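Support request, please re-run this one:
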Amino acid sequence: MKAPPAPIRWPAFILIVVFSVVISPSVAIYCDEDDCYDLLGVSQSANASEIKKAYYKLSLKHHPDKNPDPESKKLFVKIANAYEILKDEATREQYDYAIAHPEEVFYNTAQYYRAYYGHKTDPRAVLVGLLLILSGFQYLNRWTRYNQAIDMVKKTPAYKNRLKALELERSGGISSKKKTQKNMDKKVQEDLGKELELQIKGAEMPSVWELVGVRLVLLPYTLGKLLLWYGCWFWRYKVKHHPYSWEDASYLTRTSLHIPQDAWRSMDEGTKEDLVLRRLWEKPNLESYLTDMRKESKRRR
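Re-run finished. Output below.
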C-alpha cells in the first residue's frame, strides 16, 4: 500500500503564499515593478554625480517637450520618480536596504511611507503656526468674554444710573422730561458709555502683550529684565540696606497678601498707605494683621 500523502500544514502554506505575494511589493513600492537603477541605466554602486548625469541625459530624450510619444511620456514619469528616490541619500539608503532585505516587508513599507507621506515641514514653521493659531484663539476668547461682561454690566441699574448722571453733567443739569433713560438715543448712549471706564475683574480688555505667542517671543527679554531687577533689588536692599521705596514696599505688601495687581491698583490710596505702613512683608506683622482680620470678621458675624 502506498503511504497516505502528508497532510498540508495550512498555516505554513498560507504564510508561504502571503510572502510570495507580498515580498516583492516591499521593493516595488518605490519604482513599481521596475528597478530604480535600471530605469536610470546605472549600477547600484553609482555615485550621486553619475546618477544626476544619467537622469539629465534621459530627460532630454524622453521629456514631453522633447518627445511627444505617449509611451515616452510614461517612461519619463518613471525616470523622474527613480531619480527622486536615488538622488536623496536617505531614500536611496532605504531603497538599497529593501533590495537587500525583501523579507522585511512591513519595515520597508513603513520606511517608504514615512519618507514620502510623513510631514516634511520645518518644525520651526510648525511651531510658529501653532503659536499664531493659539494666540488668535486666545485673543478672540478674551474679546468674547470682555464683550459679554460689558453687555451684562450695561443691563444693571448701577450702570444706567451712572450713564444718566453723566448725561446730566454734560447737559448742565438740564434733562427733558420726555427723554427718559429708556428712550435715550443709542448714539448718545454709546458716546457716554465710552467715557465710563468699566473695569471688570476676570474679563479685562485683551492685550496683545498677554498673548502666549508674544510672551514666548519676548521670553529672553523678560528673563533678562527679571534678572536685572533681582540684581538691583539684592544690591540695594541686601547689600546696601537702603530703606524700601514706596513702589517696592507696595510690591512686598501686595505679594504678602496675595493681592492681584489689578485689585491693588483699584484700591483707594488711604487703604494702600495703611497696609504699606504696617510692613506686612515681615512675618510677625503679617500674622498679627491676619489675626486682627479674623477677629473683625467674627465680630461682624
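The chain has three domains: 10-117, 125-195, 222-300. The longest helix spans residues 123-154.
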